[in-house]
Amino acid sequence: MNLSKQRASVSNVIRFNLFYIKRAVMVNVAVDLIKAWGHANVRATHKTTIEVTKDEYLTPRGDCIVGIRADKALSELDPGLRSIISKDGSIVIVIFSVGDYFDYVVGMGSSRLTLSSDEKLIIRRSEYVDDATLMIRASKAAAGLSRELVDRLKRGEPLLVYIVGVDLEQDRGT
């Protein structure tokens, strides 16, 4: 999706959600950024996962991988973000940005996540967890990402991966 076309609708959604959040809960939010690169072999056709890796190369078999040469992996994320993501009921939002194009995935954190991989991160539609799992029950996998974004990744363009963790703590004082 083109960033300029989506700003108005995203702003309306954010305003609505913040109004709702102000009334019912206290919110803890943490954000981190991973910088990676696309590659000519990016296919983004996998139906259950998305992966970003520190690996220097990508073979055509890596159909879930959208970014290589990442500057960090799960174990290196901000400690505050890691703390939020590893709570049951937390919300994880990942925004993939390449030039003027972006796409996003929303999923769940879990106390089962170890976030200990030194090499990669994996977004999963399922509830399967291993050391590289960033989120479970994701709203989409690689095959669901914007084709405009994927086309730019195939050109080897830089990829920015914004990871947002949201912990909605019930306000017990009201």
Question: Your description of this structure?
Answer:
The chain is α/β, with parallel strands linked by helices and 174 residues long. It has one domain (3-170): Jelly Rolls. Helices cover 21% and strands 33% of the residues. The chain has helices at residues 3-24, 79-85, 147-154; strands at residues 25-37, 49-53, 65-67, 91-98, 101-108, 120-124, 133-135, 158-170. The strands form two sheets. It has a four-stranded antiparallel beta sheet with strand order 1-8-4-5. Strands 3-2-6-7 form a four-stranded mixed beta sheet, with no helix packed on it. The protein is globular, with a radius of gyration of 16 Å. The protein starts with a helix and ends with a strand. Residues 2-19 have low confidence and may be disordered.
How would you describe the shape? globular
In the sheet with the most strands, the strands line up as: 1-8-4-5
| Architecture (CATH level 2) name | Sandwich
* Uncertain spans: 2-19
Cα(first) to Cα(last) distance is 40 Å
Strand content: 25-35%
Write down how many β-strands occur, each being a DSSP E stretch of 2 or more residues.
8
| Name of the CATH class | Mainly Beta
Briefly note the CATH topology name: Jelly Rolls
Number of helices: 3
Name the helicity range: 10-25%
Mean pLDDT over the full residue set: 88
Q: Given the helix and strand composition, which structural class is it?
A: alpha/beta
Largest β-sheet summary:
4 strands, antiparallel
CATH superfamily: mth639 domain like
* Number of separate domains: 1
What is the H/E order? Answer: HEEEHEEEEHE
What would you report as the Rg, rounded to the nearest angstrom?
Answer: 16 Å
